Amino acid sequence: MSDFSSFATEMNGGLPAGFYAQMRTSLILVNSVCRHVFQHPHTALTQEVAALTELDADFVSTMQAVHDDVSLGTVMVQQPTEFLWYLRLGEQLLTSPMGLELLKRIQGFSGHVQTEDPDLHQSQLLLDHFVHGLQLLADNFATYLGQLEGEDAESLALGALQLEGIVARQLPSLPPLPHATPPEAQPAAPAYETDDTEAEEPAVQMTFQEAQLQVMRLSATLPDVLPDTLETPFTSAVGANEAFHTPLLPRLRQRLLNAAPDEPLGFTLPELVLLYRCAQVCAMTMLQPELERLFLQGVDISTDHDPEAASRVRHVLSIIVGGFVELVQNEYGAEPEFAQARQEMEHLADLL
User: DSSP letter at 11?
Assistant: First the structure.
């Protein structure tokens, strides 16, 4: 091919078929950290990054809308320099402490994890895999810019080093990712506190085994992280659902994070309805290929590393969520609150 534009015309926006699918998770992670940077335009980090790269919130939004080979190839053709800076910035942020915080947040980890913790080690390996893919893409695209766009290779390399220095020096000026505060650092909430802060007797008492507890923790995390991680009609509807915009959700999540396996947990009716909604969202999230791998890695049910492991984890997760939903519906399905919750979940399912 003589230039990238003709390559774009002939091969799905310049990319081999399925290329976006291979890079999708890495690009989702990049968008999450870059969006966080440009949501805080007055920080030293954001201002220095913008001055060096000319990246802005509009380009981050453009990348958030990328969803296939054609749309990705279009950005690479029309805004190649911005795309390269975007990859480089994402690479630097994901290799900073922000990267692991993001992955822990997505996976529902509880915050302060010791460096020898196997969950942290597994997350770091997963993050390294995604970052390696970004590095390869950025390096290859920089080579393309040098060969076909006339960009000076030394200038591109120098710019990458300058960006690395900015991130290393100014990252502390950026506020932490939302919901990154470990639950043990938050003030304890009353066990059965409701939205109006009145004490309420638990309607039911449950015990969860280790795997069940992890799935419930993940379920209580998803309504907060989904809208910020991927832009689809489904995730947007989750973010717009008022039922998840309640102080009850972080308190419920904290209780689950602090709970031990087989520890009796009492739930008020509002808590049970909320956890029912969260579990339904968790089940539907497993139907989203863009996010499935990240969330399955956050549920340490199977430690096998063969190709069928994800399928087994998915099956176990389905059984756990399905069993919880069925139990709640059988016992409390006649309550008006659950009738409304079922209607909302049916609407979400229609968006998949």
Answer: T
Smallest CA-to-CA distance from 104 within 29, 172, 40, 175 is with 29
Q: Look up residue 38 and give its two tokens.
A: 């440009």
pLDDT in tens, 157-204: 888 999 999 999 999 999 988 753 343 344 443 333 344 434 577 888
**Encoded tokens for 217:** 């923790």
Amino acid at 110: S
Q: pLDDT tens digits for 78-97? A: 999 999 999 999 999 999 98
Say if CB 198 and CB 126 are below 8 A apart.
no
- Amino acid at residue number 325: V
CA Rg value for the chain: 22
Assigned token pair, 83: 């795309």
Q: Hey, which of 40-54, 182-196, 251-265, 285-299 has the most confident mean pLDDT?
A: 40-54
Strand, coil or helix: 335: coil
Beta strands in 234-344 (DSSP E): 265-267
Contacts of 191 (CB under 8 A, 6+ apart): 255, 266
The whole-angstrom separation of Cα 83 and Cα 89 is 10
